[in-house]
Every structure is written in C-alpha cells, then in structure tokens.
Write a structure and sequence with these properties.
Layout (H helix, E strand, L loop, with lengths): L1 E8 L2 E8 L10 E10 L1 H8 L15 E9 L9 E5 L14 E4 L4 E3 L6 H23 L8 E4 L5 H12 L3 E6 L5 H7 L1 E6 L15 E6 L3 H10 E9 L13 H6 L2 E4 L7 H14 L3 H6 E5 L3 H9 L6 E5 L3
Parallel strand pairs: 8-9, 8-11, 9-10, 11-12, 12-13, 14-15
Antiparallel strand pairs: 1-2, 3-4, 3-6, 3-15, 4-5, 5-7
Helix pairs in contact: 1-9, 2-3, 2-7
The structure holds NADPH dihydro-nicotinamide-adenine-dinucleotide phosphate.
Length: 326
Amino acid sequence: MKAILINKDDNGYSAALSDVDENDLPEGDVTVQVDYSTLNYKDSLAITGSSPVVRNFPMVPGIDLSGTVTDSSNAGYSVGDKVVLNGWGVGEVHWGGLAQKARLNGDWLVPLPDTFTPKQAMGIGTAGYTAMLCVMALEDHGVTPDKGEILVTGAAGGVGSVAISLLAKLGYTVVASTGRASEADYLKGLGASDLIDRNDLSEAGRPMAKERWAGAVDAVGSHTLANICASLKYGGTVAACGLAQGFDLPATVMPFILRGVTLAGVDSVNCPRPRRIEAWNRLAKDLDISHIETMMTEINLGDAIAVASDQMAGKTRGRVVVNVNA
Ligand code: NDP
C-alpha cells in the first residue's frame, strides 16, 4: 500500500511517499480501507517535524480518516461499515490515515453519519469536529445568540472556517479574526458578519479591556487568547483549542475574578466517545453541508508533504482533504 512514512534516524527527520507492506500495519481489531484523510495543523507539524508530534518511528501520519471496514473482530463493526476516526494518538503513536489502509482499535471509531459521504466527513475532519466541540463548550456555558458577538480566531483555517459556518447557522453574530483580509469574501460567505485584523489581538495587551465578546472560539493561543479573555463580556466564555500563534498564555486572573469569564479548554484527541458521537451528530444537523465544498481543497497523497509546508506557512485555506488513492 502507499503511505506517507516519517522516519527519524542518523540521517535526520524525513517524510516520504512510500510503498509499505500491509503486514507491517500495527495491532488493532479493525482494518479500514481508507478513502480520505486530511491535513490538520497537527499533521503538518508532524510531516514537517516542526514540533515533536510523532513519538514512534517509522510513523504514518494522519490524525483522521474516513473509509470502509474490510476486516473486524470488534463486535461493534462489520465488513462494509463506513467509519470516521479522529485522534486517540493515531498519526502520533499509532499509524494513521495518510495511507491506503489502517489497522485500528475499533473503540476509536465513529460510524459515518448518513448525512455525509466519506469525502465530506473529511472536509470536516478533526479541525471541524473540534470546532463543533468548541461550539458545544460555548453552549454548555450558557452562551446564546442573544448575548452578543462571537469572535473566531484563525478564521481562514480549518477550525476557524467550520466554527464560523456552525455559529452563523445557529444564529450567532460572528466576527472573524484573520491575517488574510483577502479572504473577506470567503469568510463572509461562511457567515461572518464582520472581520478584524489578527494583529489587533496578537500583541501584549492590558489585563482588562473594553467588554466586547459574548464568546469566542480560539485556535491561536498566546497573546491572542490573553486579549480575548481581557475583552470577554461579563460572564462570557472562550473555547480554547489551538496554538497557531503560540502555546504560551500571558494572561492575568483579572477578567476571571472581576468579570466571571470562563476559559473552556477543548481537546479532541481523548474526548470521550459519547461526546464525540454527539459532536458528529450535531455536525450532521447544524453544519450547512454546501459549505463543506467551499471550505475544502482536495489533494493527492503524494502532494501531502509539500502542502504541509504551505499549511505551516499559513497559506492553506479552510480544510485540506487528502485522496489517499490518487
Ligand atoms: P490551520 O492551519 O488550518 O489554521 C490555522 C490558522 O491560524 C491559520 O489559517 C491562520 O488563520 C491562523 N494563524 C496561523 N499562524 C498564526 C499566527 N502566528 N498568529 C495568529 N494566527 C495565526 O489549522 P487548524 O484549523 O487545523 O488548527 C488550528 C489550531 O487548532 C492549531 O493550533 C491546532 O493544533 C489546533 N487544534 C487543536 C485541536 C484540539 O484537540 N485541541 C484539534 C484540532 C486543531 P488566518 O490566516 O485567518 O489568520
């Protein structure tokens, strides 16, 4: 089978399109013929070696996949079932989706919702499922559309694009923070009512700023997240899932103790199975399916290495879907 294979040895760190023996697939009770995988930010970190995402070598990257079960000794899955996988350390410690086949623990899988084709499911991918988890976190903390504007950072990326689409369809007023003013039409097409320049948030700010946001979905971290906390309205919530600016958080406790704001952390990797199934069911209900095509760029498996560098350089838009059989 074809796969992207990452190696680290005396010659350094490398990623290459490779022929891999299926007998080398890792242990697992379900084998999946992969249709599509994607390039999430974490996949691009792994492929380019920009961050120590991969912990076993050689590794097939790809933290998500969609496909069809070809072999199963797991009671929950039969041959022919369509499935989706996100996270659980796949593509980090267990061979992942950027390959034509994957062998996995069946308990990690989610049945593909009927609403989506395998390609559409990866048009959403881990970034989109994480965006849904972020929206659910805002809802859990009582952020309703009548409370005011919602800020989405990293707006033209994968998490940001899906978050805008979801929030707009749910009736929220969404403001997109982006470094790419050239993507204004794209972001407004997904449902953003206004744009701000990400540079307005990226520098060290005051501990408390003017109250503006009822809620926020942050894919960026660092000063941006600190500035969001400082400008949440009284009782507001930011769902924090990303670190595109940095993993630091140079904030103060002031907005928390004086405005009762909430910093809600969102993790997709080890998210419990009932919550991830709920997230996929919510995506089937609450995402404008026509937006998937708008947000998606399809590439071939062999293109994944070059496009990973583009993603690290902030040049990809929305979701990058990888056809592993092309
Ligand atoms: P993308 O690469 O698709 O999007 C990231 C976006 O962040 C870019 O498009 C850009 O948006 C913005 N950005 C990039 N660099 C900077 C910077 N230096 N300062 C401010 N903004 C920047 O990535 P994903 O959407 O796949 O992932 C986004 C983040 O969420 C990543 O950090 C990823 O690791 C994290 N993530 C976390 C998950 C979890 O389980 N917690 C799951 C999935 C993702 P623009 O051009 O509009 O400014």
